[in-house]
Amino acid sequence: MVRLPADLPLRLGLWIDTVVDRDDTLRTLARERAFDRLRRDDIVSQRTLERWRTEAAAALRDPHPITAPYGETLLARDGSVDTAPHVFSLTLAAERVLRIATTADDGARGGLLVDVFEGGNVEGPRRIGAYGPAPFDERLSFEQASVDRKLTLRVQALPGSTGRFAWRTEVRAVLDFPVEIDTTNPVQSFFGMPRDGGRREHHGIDIFAPRGTPVLAAADGLVIRTGESPRGGLHVWQRAVDTDGVPLGALYYAHMDSVTAEAGTHVRRGEPLGTVGNTGNAQTTPPHLHFGLYRRFVGPVDPLPLTGERRVPTVTVSPTNVLPNWLAVSSTRANLRGAPSTDAPVIASLDGGSLLRVEASVDDGRWARVTVGDGARGFIARSLLAPAREHEVQAAINTDAMLRSAPSADAPSLGRFDADLRDGAVSLGRFGEAERVRTTNGLTGWLIGPAVVPALE
Ligand SMILES: [Zn+2]
Q1: Of 41, 111, 310, 397, which one has the fewest beta carbons inside 10 Å?
Q2: Within the chain, what is the greatest distance between any pair of CA atoms?
Q3: Are 167 and 226 in a shared domain?
Q4: 82 C-alpha to center of ligand 1: Å?
Q5: The domain containing residue 337 runs over which residues?
């Protein structure tokens, strides 16, 4: 079965809409459509396109573990965005929603593609979501909301993309906070507290807010009933569903001052249902929303663990943290860590001057995700990085040496490193088996091979 986002018509104006594919019957996924279009329009060479696709598939085997929230600003290389795939693994806990967003700065062209995979078998992990390349903000939840899921995210810019791009993922509660309020501790009365002298229990939570504060739908779903009762006062019942249309239970919003929602209508999460009040048996207490969740075959359950933060965080991604592709360790030593935090385990201790390939700038730009010359990958504090210092060229040089565009023997050649280029060239450091070199005419490239003192004539 194929499910399309409910707001699909709104997206048809975009170059490519977002489609979630649950069993691969639908072939018009964002990635395939983008690929077909690039091929048809002859925007980039066939060889580039094929390499882009091959790299994307190969990268899935070696994901980088992350925990959400996590966000990156991707780097520009020679004015265009690096199209290498960025692949991450993360665990989505039960009854949580994965949120993924991308953005681009004004004037950016191309875009980011994000694929979400789950599990893995002989044929590899199964793709369960495909988004992009137009900027998007998507939620992803699952039918089996009761189990943890191991997911793989692949983020990759379209070939030929220019400008600045950023992406971010967050793990959110399955329900949104139902009151538009920004105070500390608005929930003052919890699920299971005694009521009526212990004859019954509190089957919800009480969220205190000034009279008239908007009450917002905590999920998408049909308004089943509105009305007024002695206990709940003015109230709304909503049949809540997650983003895939999977039932979450019935939501009960009570003691309201006014109700604007209409029975029989569908509302989207975040839409106003009415306002906070103290109607019903709350007339002697300050205004608050009684918020309850009733599950089929279960009855009332505590909605608090399933309810998001009172302040709904907006997924903002700053395209201003663009770093150079190559930086060096500026301190005497620096720790390469497994996550962007000083609490994270140390993967390696790096010598001062070590040249690092910067893959992305992480979150607020205080960390960089990097690859080290021996292939190790991790995070390093941005404050410990600086542009590489120049040294005398020490790379293997013979008349056949090629200056290459990347630190690998099969990278495209920029030209023979002959006397013209060699004269006055400086080394910017070693990365694995390669030496980064800048020539007097401003060409930067790589000499592949072990370091030896050049036999300059
Ligand atoms: Zn209550």
Answers
A1: 41
A2: 99
A3: no
A4: 53
A5: 326-386
